[in-house]
Design goal:
This protein has 429 residues and is α+β, with helices and mostly antiparallel strands. The chain contains 14 helices and 18 strands.
Length: 429
């Protein structure tokens, strides 16, 4: 406008930008992966789907045994993370976890099905067997329920593929002591996970790889309910105890958004150590997959990048819900674990706004002037921008039985999102 300072916007061609003697705004632009067209019907469907996520009110309502609680669970069934998987395609840590679960249950063989097919989620290998205790989380808004196993702690644990006698003995104790103890504590009433999530984000957690605040708040609540000293000691030594609860909360919220015809909102991102899989609201039973990518990160002891297994776990449901890598600006200290800096944590969250539909007012980030976390991944926006979702994650050793070797960052492969977009386009024509 007349009298206003001149500004120039440049996309690429930095040499030309440098030659313009005016204030400049550089745009990291790239051509769309596919040609997009206006689609008001999909816009309306996506607003319906994402509104269900924003309205979610997750409550921890109980604890039970997987066989009794998880829909469709059977004694001879093992649930695993990620998209469907055949025994012969299982990676080292997945194989180790499955073999440990077989021994735990006294089985010679078992069928395999994804946790996600049974309203459940599990971190890393994600293996849930019939006798394991599981948490029950309910979205008060939709009535949807989701389930997850209990977190074992760090080090040599089943979810990273370790399966020696110490690992199995810990799991037996969790089934015999910790699970029943937690179930009794929940008899006093549900625990509001939504409230804990809100507070934890404002106390430095991003709720995928940092749970110090959330676990501390949960610890206090359980102590007030008279949880036994043995159980309290276990939780106190495990800052990751809250992970499985927030995963179930995210699963319930994202399941509430599934089944909206024509919606391109992502309701599932999951990895089984071999493949990365995506599901969208408008095709809630269909998986779009690609080979899993190896995370890059920081390693424990003498382990190196060469030891890392491809990405694994259902815990990317946190990013699907707008937490984890999407909320890293709330937790700059997480970069001491997964790599990067406080600046890159902030930049990661800002970038994720480009591929999401809304900002979740329940998940406010102080360092961004209390903007809500970027929520509701839209495959169309990924296709339009070429931006791949960022996930922060633990890293398992590629050999069975070793366990966790580090933590880091990984970009979701773009192929499943592109395939989902093409499927949507072909069915909407």
């Amino acid at each position: 406008m007349l009298g206003q300072p001149i500004r120039a916007v440049t996309a690429g061609a930095s040499l030309i930008a440098d030659a313009v003697e005016a204030e400049q705004v550089r745009v990291d632009w790239r051509p769309p992966l596919e040609t997009l067209r206006p689609d008001p019907e999909t816009d309306r469907a996506n607003q319906e789907a994402v509104s269900r996520i924003l309205e979610a009110k997750p409550l921890w309502v109980g604890v039970g045994t997987a066989l009794d609680i998880i829909p469709g669970m059977r004694p001879e069934l093992l649930l695993h993370s990620g998209p469907p998987l055949r025994w012969e395609d299982a990676s080292g840590p997945m194989r180790g976890a499955l073999e440990g679960a077989l021994r735990l249950e006294g089985l010679a063989a078992a069928e395999l099905e994804p946790c996600h097919h049974h309203q459940a989620v599990g971190p890393m290998a994600g293996v849930i067997s019939a006798g394991m205790p599981v948490v029950i989380v309910e979205d008060q808004a939709s009535g949807r329920r989701a389930y997850s196993n209990l977190n074992e702690g760090l080090g040599k644990v089943l979810r990273y593929g370790a399966n020696d006698d110490a690992v199995l003995e810990r799991l037996r104790w969790m089934a015999q002591v910790l699970g029943p103890d937690l179930r009794r504590a929940l008899e006093a009433g549900p625990i509001d996970l939504g409230a804990i999530n809100q507070k934890a984000l404002q106390m430095g957690d991003e709720l995928h790889n940092r749970h110090r605040a959330a676990t501390s708040m949960l610890f206090r609540e359980l102590a007030l309910r008279g949880l036994s000293a043995a159980s309290m000691k276990f939780i106190d030594a495990n800052e990751y105890f809250y992970l499985n609860l927030v995963m179930a909360a995210a699963k319930a919220a994202c399941d509430a958004a599934s089944g909206v015809p024509r919606s391109t909102l992502v309701t599932t991102m999951a990895r089984n150590g071999t493949e990365f899989g995506v599901r969208i609201s408008g095709a809630s039973e269909r998986w779009f997959t690609a080979p899993a990518v190896v995370p890059v990160g920081l390693f424990l002891g003498s382990y190196t990048q060469a030891d890392a297994n491809p990405d694994i776990g259902d815990s990317a449901i946190t990013e699907t819900y707008g937490l984890g890598g999407f909320a890293m600006a709330a937790a700059p200290a997480i970069t001491r674990v997964v790599g990067g800096s406080a600046g890159t944590a902030r930049d990661a969250t800002l970038e994720m706004y480009e591929i999401t539909l809304e900002e979740n007012p329940n998940h406010q980030i102080p360092s961004l002037d209390f903007r809500g976390s970027p929520t509701g991944i839209d495959v169309r926006r990924i296709v339009e921008t070429g931006i791949q979702p960022l996930i922060n994650t633990g890293i398992a050793h590629k050999q069975a039985g070793v366990g966790q070797v580090g933590a880091g960052l990984v970009r979701a492969p773009v192929e499943p999102f592109l395939e989902a977009y093409r499927w949507h386009s072909s069915t909407s024509a």
